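Hi P.,

Sorry for the delay on this. The queue was packed all week, but I finally got your sequence through. Input first:
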Amino acid sequence: MDVRVSETTQSPTASPSPPECTQNSDACAVIRSILARTTDKWSILIVKSLGRGPHRFSELRRAIDGISQRMLTLTLRNLERDGLVLRTVTPTTPPRVDYELTTLGESLWTLTEAFGQWALSNRPEIEAARARFDARLDANT
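Then the structure:
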């Protein structure tokens, strides 16, 4: 097993460390709650779609393969509640409802795009590591 340990030192002007997340700390509960909401499969796909600009409900449903109407409704409502998505109703017949990212939502979109690029850039290395791991498991069975 390859284990690497690195030591880092902070300069006096470095930003403060984030609160430590231990099993019973409030910081851990907050982090867990926010990550659970913002990093689930459907939230990520909705944020990714809205990163290209505002969409109507039906456009989002067509853009996100496999999402049910109920799941899209619930996820949009939760993202709106968290301040990541803005829902705008235009009083027409029938009413027009558009969804777009807020400034906070755009900051999440930036992170998800960076994470997506990281995944694509590192795909060959990850797939090679998986193949080595699987081969090792197969050899031991």
